[in-house]
Amino acid sequence: MSEFETNFHLAARLRAATAAYVLPADLWPRIASAHAARRRQRRRRRLAAACGGLALLAVLALSTSAWRHAAAPAVDWQARAQALELQLDTLPTPVASDPMAQLAETELAHLDRHLQAAYDHGAAARDLDPLWQRRSELLDALLSVRRQQVLPSQI
Amino acid sequence: MNDRLATGFAQDIDAMTLARAQRGDMAAFEEIYRRYGRACFQLGLRLTGQRQPAEDLVHEAFLKMMDTIASYRGEAPFGAWFKRLTANTGIDWLRRQRHLADTDAEAMFEQTIAAASDTAGLVDADSLLGHLSPRARAIVVLHELEGYTHAELGALFGQSESYSKSILSRALKRLHALAASAASASQVAL
């Protein structure tokens, strides 16, 4: 018998040897259940990854915002208020006082007392800053009222 | 090939079942199992020589198939694609069991001499295969029964083509010698 024939017979015997075996009945349910478990696990991992990603984005957004806030140049409200006061001094004093200007002047006087008291008590810069900011805003308002009063007299 | 006459991995699946399976439909996977499960199990038995590892191999091969079927593009018939996946899973299994650690052909055949000296019960071809080392057994099964080329086997085992040829030639000689001595032993007994 040639080598090809003997190999052919051997292959046929090998095929026949395993042909009799049958699949265990519970194999498919086990595979299906393992597949379902893997899918659930992957879904959980994807969810965890998505949550992690969102948390990371939130942290990044917060830190970026904090960085921007920290990087923004701080306004020197005291210097600004002093500059506005100098501008106000250059304008002529109006003959008739405007009610808006009166209100601003009253609040300015009140604020100045507050500022003085704060300095007397050795207040920190973070407590003084809001007072200087408010003073700048009042001086801004007063300046715009005065400028409007000046314009008609120039015409 | 007429699919009604085809068996094992030579069968094909219809486009609808394939499309459903690619969408993850469990009923479609079950249909694929009904069609290819037995062929997969038989290949596992031939490669491992034991029932339990063969079951594990079917289990693992089907899980892999379910994970990767979405990437199957139909370049080869589905059965051929799945057979390759099963064979690769079998090789991975043998590798994990460290059955493929010894790559020296001489040493590999030396190890099986003692086992081969007992020729009783070698009428069964499966027990003949049991007298080969796992690597030689896998090469015989994949080349002689599954149609793998030596180039493919060399690549599969991380060896050269001539290595696969050498192992196959020696393994077949061993099998023929064992079969012949088993046949003469049974004649003496009669």
Description:
- The complex is a heterodimer of chains A (155) and B (190).
- With 155 residues, chain A is mainly alpha-helical.
- Chain A is 83% helix and 0% strand.
- Chain A has helices spanning 3-19, 27-71, 77-90, 99-120, 125-154.
- Chain B is built from nine helices and no strands.
- The relative contact order of chain B is 0.10.
- Chain A binds chain B through residues 3, 6-7, 10-11, 13-19, 21-24, 27-28, 30-32, 34-36, 38-39, and chain B through 24, 26, 29-30, 33, 37-38, 41-42, 45-46, 51, 54-55, 58-59, 62-63, 66-67, 124-126, 128-129, 140-141, 144-145, 172, 175-176, 179.
Biggest sheet statistics of chain B: none
This entry's quaternary arrangement is: heterodimer
* C-alpha geometry of chain B: elongated
Task: Note poorly predicted spans of chain B.
Answer: 113-123
Q: How many helical elements of chain B?
A: 9
Shape estimate of chain A = rod-shaped
- Can you give the mean pLDDT of chain B? 81
Quickly give the structural class of chain A. mainly alpha
State the end-to-end CA separation of chain A. 129 Å
Rg from Cα of chain B: 18 Å
Number of strands of chain B: 0
Q: Most extensive interface: pair and counts? A: A-B, 26 and 33 residues
For the structure shown, list the relevant keywords.
heterodimer; A: 155 residues; mainly alpha; 83% helix; 0% strand; rod-shaped; B: 190 residues; 9 helices; 70% helix; elongated
Indicate the topology:
The complex is a heterodimer of chains A (155) and B (190).
Chain A: H1 3-19, H2 27-71, H3 77-90, H4 99-120, H5 125-154
Helix pairs in contact in A: 3-5, 4-5
Chain B: H1 15-22, H2 26-48, H3 51-68, H4 78-96, H5 105-116, H6 125-129, H7 134-145, H8 150-156, H9 161-189
